[in-house]
Amino acid sequence: MTQNLWNFLFIGGSFALYIGIAIRSRAATTKEYYVASGGVSPFANGMATAADWMSAATFISMAGIIAASGYDASRFLMGWTGGFVLLTTLIVPYLRKFNKFTVTDFLGDRFYSNVARTVGVICAIFICMTYIMGQMRGVGLVFSRLFDIEIWLGVLIGAGIVFFYAGLGGMKGITYTQVAQYCVMVFAYTIPAVFISMLLTGNVIPQLGLIGDFTKGDVSPVPLLTKLNALNVELGFPKYTDGNLPKIDMFCITAALMCGTAGLPHVIVRFFTVKSVNAVRRSACWTLLFIALIYLTAPAIGAFVRTNLISEIQGTRYANAPGWFKSWEDRGLIAWTDKNADGIMQHSVGPAFAGNPAYMPERAENGPRMVTNVLSDNTNEVYYDKDILVMANPEMAGLPMWVIALVMAGCVAAALSTAAGLLLVLSTSISHDLMKKIVSPTLSDAHEVLWARGASFVFLVIAAYFGINPPAEFVAKTVAFAFGLAASSFFPTILMGIFSKRMNKQGAIAGMIAGIALTMGYIVFFQFIAGHKNYVFGISPEGIGFIGMIVNFVVAIAVSTVTPPPPPEIVAMVEEIRIPHGAGSASH
Question: pTM for the whole thing?
Answer without folding.
Answer: 0.82
